[in-house]
């Protein structure tokens, strides 16, 4: 059975990059090499793999990738740190709960 991976990289400028691939090791090496000078990570080396999720369904992996790309930095950080309480807190509606929580 083929595997697909959703992953989060941390970049040297303290941003996150979210991607999806069917070969995680190869893809991370591509990011780290900066071989595609037009890619987001090429200008932000070095990069470090912070989190990944293995899926068997490519459609599910794409769905998860798109979902995470829409998240705030603090929500991605909570996922990476497996801080489930913060992940739930940062998912709350701003109009109801305000924006008093500080971003990292």
UniProtKB/TrEMBL annotation:
Protein name: Putative endonuclease
Family note: Belongs to the UPF0213 family.
GIY-YIG domain residues: 2-78
Keywords attached to this entry: Endonuclease, Hydrolase, Nuclease
Nuclease in keyword set: yes
Pfam families: GIY-YIG
SMART domains xrefs: GIYc
GO molecular function, one term: endonuclease activity
Domain of life, per lineage: Bacteria
